[in-house]
Design a protein that fits this description.
The protein is mostly helical. The protein is built from 13 helices and two strands. The protein starts with a helix and ends with a helix.
């Protein structure tokens, strides 16, 4: 805690000069490279290179890992031959003993994110066609609609991803449907909102509530480096990540997910081109 406070105050007094920018970028880049190599070593023997090939949230975190820079992860392994999304690479979790449904909006959000990062148009199109032909009931049991029904935000993001990755050649009307952001209470819903926002940044398109959602998430979840990074608060996310960072409560399951979450927040922070656009004073939580 003391180290974090010291680092934040150093940002305050040193100012936003090029030297500060270079120092913290270099430190974060070095730590990112080290942790990415660590993740590769831990996952190279897993099916598809996934962070876990047995956990029932595996598909979600495979997509996050790919977006975090783990380019060895095969996210398309989350799709059955007919395009149906699964939780494990090339396999389902046993229903109802291991999981209540074969997929969920969390899993599909991770899969969309990963396929967009892969630029995998055929796989993303297969996911679209599976859902479209089944009125967006994406798995089993079909009666558990709260879990297996893909909500309009997800449908719109798939359509936008296809349009962007195909250079406009795959053009579904749902791509113009606005993505809506609003308050969330459960931690998994916060994670879903953050990842949906990341996908939208990659594929574009109209949205409502974006600025409010980013402000609320970065202020309420002020120790969440991913929320800070997505809100553009790069100095805060860097300060969090360079110290003894504690992952948010939505990072649960396999121990590798902690590492994946850190890497995604770090990559977004490093990719942000506007480190010097805001005063650190205005960005302190």
């Amino acid at each position: 805690m003391l180290r974090l406070v010291t680092l934040l105050f150093s940002l305050l007094f040193l100012g936003c000069g090029d030297a500060l920018n270079a120092v913290y970028r270099e430190q974060l880049q070095e730590k990112y490279d080290s942790k990415l190599a660590e993740l590769h070593e831990k996952t190279k023997d897993n099916i598809g290179g996934w962070p876990s090939d047995i956990d029932c949230d595996a598909a979600l975190w495979a997509g996050v890992a790919r977006a975090a820079g783990a380019d060895w992860v095969v996210v398309s392994a989350a799709l059955a031959p007919d395009g149906r999304p699964t939780r494990r690479p090339y396999a389902d979790c046993e229903i109802p003993h291991e999981s209540r449904t074969t997929t969920s909006n969390d899993m599909i959000t991770g899969i969309i994110l990963g396929l967009v990062e892969e630029k995998n148009v055929p796989a993303l199109h297969a996911l679209w066609q599976y859902g479209y032909e089944r009125s967006w009931i994406m798995g089993y049991p079909e009666w558990f609609a709260a879990r297996v029904y893909l909500r309009p935000n997800g449908v719109a993001l798939i359509a936008r991803g296809l349009y962007r990755l195909s250079d406009g050649n795959i053009n579904y009307l749902m791509r113009i449907s606005p993505v809506l952001y609003g308050p969330t209470d459960a931690d998994y819903a916060t994670h879903l909102t953050l990842l949906s926002r990341l996908i939208q940044k990659k594929v574009g398109g109209p949205s409502y509530g974006t600025d409010i959602a980013e402000l609320i998430l970065s202020k309420v979840h002020y120790r969440d480096a991913l929320a800070q990074a997505l809100a553009g608060n790069s100095h805060i996310s860097a300060a969090l990540l360079l110290n003894d960072y504690e992952s948010p409560s939505y990072v649960r399951g396999h121990e590798n997910y902690q590492l994946v979450h850190w890497l995604l927040a770090a990559r977004i922070t490093l990719d942000n081109k506007s480190w010097l656009d805001k005063s650190p004073i205005s960005m302190l939580p």
